[in-house]
Write a structure and sequence with these properties.
With about 500 residues, the protein is an alpha/beta fold. The chain has 17 helices and 14 strands. Keywords: Glycosidase, Hydrolase.
């Protein structure tokens, strides 16, 4: 492909404006600052870019010194998917915990406090909330990121989350349109397919997005999923029938459409990121999210040149690219004038929510007074969650019951290995989506047969039957969810 000069001509600037790239490091590299001067209008942040709130604020100030209206985006759902607190675990429970409480005002307050923290660090676009209805219990990538399996519940909490987040001046990006809940495949690895008919989709998947649009969601993120009832040929991110006809036309949405990460295999392995980006903009997307795994100047240059080349070859209408770029600038203008949140900060609201979300089974339980052994049965983490964020109850229990031991176990011998490691101490078994992992269920069988007094903590979707001397369902694996469980186990 021909490389085009990176001057300030309108076409080149528009091509840069629609990109939302990431980068490596905790300060902005020179190439990124240079691209901001040439027209780049958005930057995506990930856990690798964040060391502390103070460092993050300095980083966003560095970006704004180059371009004062830059959109600084982050994937901060709270709960299992956290970038602000990637090294310690989130101070906020995720969507599933909020759905379990089912108090939309609490959801609004949690989202407002999360937005306040983001805004204080200079972040003004959050790729959240997930509006997916978790209708398939086998879903490997949504799970506790969803408010639940009930459409009406998901819709009211999606609206509350959007309202709360945007009250802090942070734009919400409701995802993953038209709904990623009824999938058994992770789009990070392959292309999922949803075979529901149009009537089911309209009633189930689309209802939360209608609620988000009514609540004023400033952005919507597309899903890399094939929905034959809407478009038999193209995944939603690359589909004009989905993005333009359905989202813009039928649902009347006028805000920014952002793609999910274009480096995900559902797109990259089939179309390549350059061709995929051209097709996405042509289909109606306004911003190309890339950078979760591809975070360098070469990626930005390739995507810029692909868009410019497609316009010059007549494959992408210049007017469509200009419209997309203008929507990015429009959102940037909104964030620049958004109201500063009023009222006091509420740093405790996440723990309040996590405590309310806890479901306790086992009335005759006597709290532990001696240090137990915590056996964490650890599944492979999906890419959205990542494996760098700690989870479980061991760290929180150790603070309450010093001397608490812990180990991580997986596979066919997990139960036997955990029993041996415990060396007779009281066992606390921590699982995550037991219903999706037969080896995990077998490990619990083995533990409970040998040690019926074992405490079981389910930190995923509590689909499997409750069992154990005490069963705690936290509805998520955030740090505050672990703390809420530890408090009950230790009688605090």
């Amino acid at each position: 492909m021909t490389t085009f000069a990176s001057g300030t001509d309108t076409l080149t600037r528009d091509a840069l404006t629609v990109l939302q790239p990431g980068f490596t490091g905790t300060t902005a590299p020179d190439w990124l600052l240079r691209r901001l001067g040439e027209g780049l209008a958005s930057v995506g942040l990930f856990g690798r870019n964040i060391a502390s709130p103070e460092q993050l604020a300095a980083l966003t100030a560095q970006l704004r010194a180059e371009r004062d209206d830059v959109l600084v985006a982050i994937d901060e759902e709270g709960g299992d998917v956290t970038r602000l607190e990637v090294r310690n675990g989130s101070s906020f429970p995720g969507n599933h915990a909020l759905g379990a409480v089912d108090d939309p005002e609490l959801t609004r307050q949690v989202a407002a406090e999360l937005g306040r923290r983001l805004a204080a660090c200079g972040v003004n676009l959050n790729w959240a909330p997930s509006a997916d209805v978790n209708s398939n219990p086998a879903n490997p990538v949504i799970g506790v990121r969803s408010f639940g399996a009930d459409t009406a519940l998901v819709a009211r909490h999606t609206a509350a989350y959007v309202t709360g987040l945007q009250s802090a001046g942070v734009a919400a990006c409701t995802k993953h349109f038209p709904g990623h809940g009824d999938t058994a495949v992770d789009s990070h690895h392959a292309l999922p397919r949803i075979d529901a008919d149009a009537a089911v989709l309209a009633e189930r998947e689309l209802a939360p997005f209608r609620a988000a649009i009514a609540a004023g969601s400033r952005a919507v993120m597309s899903a890399h999923i094939l929905v034959p009832a809407l478009d038999p040929d193209h995944p939603a991110t690359l589909s004009g029938p989905v993005l333009t006809d359905l989202l813009r036309g039928e649902l009347g949405y006028t805000g920014l459409i952002v793609t999910d990460g274009m480096e995900m295999q559902a797109i990259a392995a089939t179309y390549g990121i350059e061709r995929g980006s051209v097709l996405a903009v042509a289909a109606g997307a306004d911003a190309i999210c890339v950078g979760g795994g591809l975070a360098d100047d070469e990626t930005v240059r390739r995507l810029r040149d692909a868009l410019v080349g497609a316009v010059r070859a007549g494959e992408l209408a210049e007017e469509r690219l200009a419209e997309a770029a203008e929507r990015v600038r429009e959102l940037a203008r909104w964030t620049a004038t958004a109201a500063v949140p009023e009222g006091e900060a509420r740093p405790e609201i996440g723990l309040v929510a996590a405590r309310r979300a806890l479901r306790v089974t086992g009335a005759a339980f006597t709290p532990l007074t001696e240090a137990p052994y915590v056996a964490a049965f650890t599944p492979v983490a999906n890419i959205a969650v990542g494996d760098e964020t700690p989870w479980g109850v061991a760290a929180e229990l150790a603070r309450l019951l010093p001397g608490t031991g812990t180990g991580s176990f997986s596979g066919e011998d997990a139960g036997r290995a955990a029993l041996a490691a415990a060396e007779g101490r009281r066992l606390v078994a921590v699982v995550r989506d037991e219903h999706r992992h037969p080896w995990m269920g077998a490990a619990l069988d083995e533990l409970l047969k040998a040690r019926p007094d074992t405490v079981v903590v389910e930190m995923g979707v509590p689909q499997a039957p409750a069992r154990g001397a005490l069963h705690l369902a936290t509805h998520g694996a955030a740090r505050v969810c672990g703390l809420a469980a530890a408090e009950v186990i230790a009688g605090r």
